[in-house]
Design a protein that fits this description.
Blueprint lengths: L2 E2 L10 H13 L9 H20 L8 E4 L2 H13 L7 E5 L4 H12 L3 E5 L9 H7 L4 E5 L13 H10 L3 E5 L18 E5 L10 E5 L25 H36 L5 E3 L10 E6 L9 H10 L2 E2 L1 E2 L2 E3 L2 E3 L2 H5 L4 H4 L2 E5 L6 H18 L2
Length: 382
């Protein structure tokens, strides 16, 4: 029996997306920039996908969707696209729990003379809007706060944070890769200027993502070329992959009202079954949380003998796929920077694990995973 519980890492491509990709590869393979019939057919597919992705976040202007190769490129286009507008380094603000696509890009800007403020978070991983207000400066040009944290599942108060930046005339970006398709997003009312999303988190193919750019917001592209995607992302678009992304987005829009409550029910069921395990501490915000997401740290983590990575390996032997927060660099296990930012000790931050549920997860899967995790921890802590 195999149970996949790592849907925040990637989701299986759904059959409907595969079917449309196969059709496009076989019948509509033209270059969408070409003016002849073959190009027109491909261009029609491309724009249909743009409408579908726009519908997922209720973007009234489909052209505000800029297709990229994934969430990382979308994040980079947002951050560097704004930064390149300025000849002189300015100031930007991020949170201390950003995905590396943001945190590493911000680190690169610092090497170029930019000032970067990293907002603290509380023990649940949330940013205080008052801290954001206090961090704003006269030369702050961009704020980027992750919407749903992939490791600990915490959902930020994006509407409140975005209102702060809007009131101060500062651009606001959010990495919504983990939220899109799982919680409703309406960019017509949400005070964000830039929003990143990814195909393979919503049962579309890997290799496609998008950046929502609010009409009127100016960016400088990451690289030059033929001027595709409104001049912001040159290069011939990967039409088959984008077509699959579009189908996945449309189906996610339709299914979210039923799927999200189902995932919450399964998530809470699993939380309940794991609540009595000694030393297994839930992480993140229990109230403001991704609907499919559970995360914990091991109070007695001590490196390779008992760490998040050890749990992942042991559950994999049992046919269950989860993920760990700590990373291994040059053979040495490093504590999770996200858990450290939330105030956990280095010891506890070595023991972070994440279980994320999806469309194929059943109550039986959840029950068996709980039993297996209990058995693994009992064996390792003897």
């Amino acid at each position: 029996m195999q149970i996949y519980l790592d849907y925040s890492a990637t989701t299986p491509t759904r059959p409907e997306a595969i079917a449309v990709m196969q059709k496009v590869l076989a019948q509509q393979w033209g270059n969408p920039s070409s003016l002849h019939e073959w190009g027109n057919r491909a261009a029609t597919i491309l724009e249909q996908a743009r409408f579908q992705v726009a519908g997922l976040i209720n973007a009234s202007v489909p052209e505000s969707i800029i297709f990229t190769s994934g969430g990382t490129e979308a994040d980079n286009l947002a951050i560097m696209g704004v930064a390149r507008l300025y000849a002189v380094p300015q100031h930007m603000i991020i949170s201390s729990v950003e995905h590396s696509a943001i945190s590493e890009t911000a680190r690169l800007l610092e090497m170029w003379g930019w000032e970067v403020t990293r907002l603290p978070v509380d023990a649940k991983g949330r940013v205080n809007p008052q801290d954001l207000t206090a961090a704003l400066r006269s030369n702050t040009v961009l704020v980027s706060i992750i919407y749903g944290q992939s490791e600990v599942g915490t959902v930020q108060a994006i509407a409140e944070l975005g209102t702060v930046t809007r009131n101060h005339g500062v651009l606001f970006h959010t990495d919504a890769v983990q939220v899109v398709g799982r919680l409703p997003i309406d960019v017509e009312t949400l005070p964000v200027d830039l929003l990143s999303l990814s195909s393979h988190k919503i049962y579309g193919p890997q290799g496609a993502g998008a950046l929502y750019v609010r009409p009127g917001v100016e960016l400088i592209p990451l690289f030059g070329g033929g001027g595709q995607e409104r001049g912001l992302r040159s290069g011939t678009q990967a039409v088959p992959i984008i077509a699959g992304f579009g189908v996945a987005a449309e189906l996610a829009t339709q299914e979210m009202p039923q799927e999200t409550p189902r995932l919450i029910q399964l998530r809470d069921r699993l939380f309940t079954q794991l609540a009595d395990i000694p030393g297994l501490i839930p992480t993140g915000d229990s109230e403001h949380r991704l609907p499919h997401h559970l995360s914990f740290c091991l109070e007695s983590a001590d490196g390779e003998k008992l760490s998040g990575k050890t749990i992942v390996r042991q559950l994999n032997l049992a046919g269950i796929g989860i993920s760990a927060g700590a990373a291994c660099h040059s053979g040495k296990l490093s504590p999770s920077p996200i858990l450290l930012a939330m105030g956990y000790s280095e010891k506890a931050a070595l023991g972070g694990i994440r279980l994320t549920l999806g469309r194929e997860t059943t109550a039986a899967d959840v029950d068996w995973a709980a039993i297996a995790l209990k058995q693994v921890l009992q064996r390792l802590t003897k």
